[in-house]
Each structure stands twice: as C-alpha cells, then as structure tokens.
Amino acid sequence: MAKEIILTGDRPTGALHLGHYVGSLRKRVAMQDTGKYDTFVMIADLQALTDNADNPEKIRQNILEVMLDYLAVGLTPDKTTFLVQSHIPALYELPMYYSNLVTMSRLERNPTIKNEIKMRDFERSIPVGFMTYPISQAADITAFKAKYVPVGEDQLPMLEQAREIVNSFNRIYKCDILVEPEAVLPDNASCNRLVGIDGNTKMSKSLGNCIYLKDDEKTLKQKIMSMFTDPTHINVSDPGHTEGNPVFIYLEAFSTDEDFANFMPEYKNLAEMKEHYERGGLGDMKCKKLLNNVMQQFLAPIRARREEYEKDKGELLNILRKGTERAIEVSNQTVSEVRNAIGINYFNDKSFLERFVK
Fold first, then answer.
1. Backbone phi, then psi, for 2, in 5-degree steps?
2. First CA to last CA across the chain, in angstroms?
3. Is residue 265 classed as helix, strand or coil in its secondary structure?
4. Residue 185 and residue 138: Cα distance in Å, rounded?
5. CA neighbor of 223 nearest in space, from 241, 196, 204, 202
6. What residue ranges do the domains of the chain occupy?
7. pLDDT for 354
8. How far apart are CA 186 and CA 268, in angstroms?
C-alpha cells in the first residue's frame, strides 16, 4: 500500500530558529520516524527570491545552512527526500495553470500575505512574485500530491487557498488528480506561533528577535537573559503576568517535569512555578536561569550533530542533488496528468492526433 505524502519546506534566507522548530520541524521529524509517510522537504529558494531578487547571494549562502539545520534536528536522507525548489520544472509550470483559477481580489484577502506585506512595508510596491506566493505554494504541495503539510498557525490561510485551487481544478476539469492537503499543527498550543525574544508576536529573522538552532552557549544565554518579560513585574514581590510573557511561553513549549526535577526542584512542574510568579515572590532572573538551563540542554545535541555534518559540505550537496532528482521524477508525473486533464498534452493525445494525422 502506498504511503501518504508529506510536503513541507523553508525559505533559505538564514539559519532556522526555534519558531521553525516548534512550528513544523519537530512534527516533521516525528512523522518521518513513524515510517508511515513519504516525506518531501523543500528548500524554497524561488519563494525566497520574491522579496530578495536584488540579493540572490543571500539565498546562495543559506542553502546549506538550512540543510544543516534539517539534519541537525533529526531529518535523515534515508527517510526524507530533500529538494531544491528552483530545480523542479513542475514548480514553474503548475503555477501558470493555477493562476487562471485565482482572482487578484482573493490573493489580496489572504491574511498571511496581508501580514507579510505590512511587516515588510511594501505598501503598493509589491513584487508580483510575492503576491502570487499562495499559488506557488499550492503548486509545491500538489506537485507531489501531498496529503499532509506540517505548518505553523500563520500558514493556515495559505493551506486554505491551496485547497480552493485543488477543488477548482478538479471540478473544472472533471477529475480527481490533485489531492486536497491538510495542515498538521503543533500539538502544544504555545508552539503555534512562538513569540520573539522581544515580545513581538512573531519570531522572525527580519525582525532580529530569534533564537537560532545553531546559537552557541554564550549567544543563547545572552538572548535569554535579555528576553522581554512582564513590564509590570518591577519588584520580585510584585504579582506577575505569565500570559503573553515570552519566558513562560518558551517554558510551555520546551520544558518538562523532569527539567524541574533537575534544575528547579522546589517546583514539581510549570503550573506550580506560574502560580508563584503570578502571586508574587518569584523574580524574572530566576525564571530566565531555568529557561537557559532547559534550552542549553535541548540545543546541545542539535549543535553537536550540526557541527558533525558541517565537516563534509560536499555530502550535503549530494543529498540535495539525489533528492531533487527524485522530486523531478515524481512531480513530472503529476504535470503529465494535469496536462491530460486540461487537454493540452497535444503530442501524446491519441484522440487529438487522429483528427489531423491519417
């Protein structure tokens, strides 16, 4: 029986951070390791060009950075197909077909696009490639007939638009070629959209508020100790707020009861610590020290694996090359089926050829 397909990926605009990890990387690794899925992980360099066309070197420099992060968190080439988006011909062709099924007004209503436009301060100087990002993403997903897409909560509008495109195509061309994708969200609600260390609602490379998977011990500690907390919690004795407090959001996302036994045994779990902070008497520095211990322990093996893989970058390129070759074969089959459904596979269409060739 054929395995169900997973498709996911990241833009190579920098090393990956904790937001990427809790948003989808952790789920990707868990699903990969079940052995139940055929997993494709894409380095989305075409999508990165939509707002970095004037600086392609930034993307070139980060292709292997992203690949290193994939391997460091536990994705492996024996279980996952890694591919480079720009080298897959199907991902140029399918967006052309899909663009005829989507209106400009629908693209403009996409909440993810609206938020990104605001964050990047594009105003009306919006690159066309950026505006059609949802169409490109639908092509990425459907080219491999992916059923599941591990994403963060902010990507749900993109998945909804991909489903609309799938349904429109299958209805118009009276077929069931394209697969309607489903989002796979983090299990922990705190992970749906991990806040930045500055308290901003989104951890983002462009905002400079990230903790990167490759951060060394010193850098990680500096970032945690400078982390935004509760501005009303001025004195240790003051009651504090844990809701919306980045330190506690990170502890929700990463800490376990075992961490409390190891690093802060005066509390059985995070709930007890929260209760103390909220009534007053627990200082921010003590909370940050706990978080630093938790995160250092979590990132240590990831750093170690990353350093090991970094010793042979030629092998990283080989992994990407082999995966991309397989991805081309799989996606070309989908394109052939799409052309047949539309009726434009002229030179391989026997009924069409019979009209002209005797």
1. -65, 145
2. 43
3. coil
4. 18
5. 196
6. 4-193+313-353, 217-308
7. 85
8. 25
Q: How far is CA 245 from the centre of its chain?
A: 24
Give the pair of three-digit tokens for residue 245: 């407090």
**Quick check: helix, strand or coil at residue 222?**
helix
Residue 101 is encoded by which pair of tokens?
């099924």
CATH of 217-308, one of 1.20.1250.20, 3.90.1150.10, 1.10.260.40, 1.10.240.10: 1.10.240.10
From start to end of 154-224, where are the E strands?
A: 182-184
Sheet holding 182-184, edge to edge: 80-84, 37-43, 4-10, 148-150, 182-184
For the chain, which residues score pLDDT lower than 70?
1, 119-124, 188-192, 358
* Interval 244-263: pLDDT, tens: 999 999 999 999 999 999 99
> Which residues have a Cβ under 8 Å from the Cβ of 307 and sit 6 or more positions away?
none
Do the beta carbons of residue 31 and residue 75 sit within 8 Å?
no
- Do residues 270 and 252 touch, judged by C-beta distance below 8 A? yes
Cβ neighbours, 10 Å, residue 251? 23
State pLDDT tens for residues 36-49: 999 999 999 999 99
Residue 174 has a CB neighbour count (10 Å cut-off) of 7
Angstrom distances, CA of residue 204 to CA of 14, 212, 233, 271: 10, 10, 26, 28
The two structure tokens encoding residue 27: 């789920």
Q: Report the topology of domain 4-193+313-353.
A: Rossmann fold (3.40.50)
Tokens 């799938």 sit on residue: 166
DSSP letters, 319-358, are: HHHHHHHHHHHHHHHHHHHHHHHHT--GGG-HHHHTTT--
pLDDT score of 189: 66
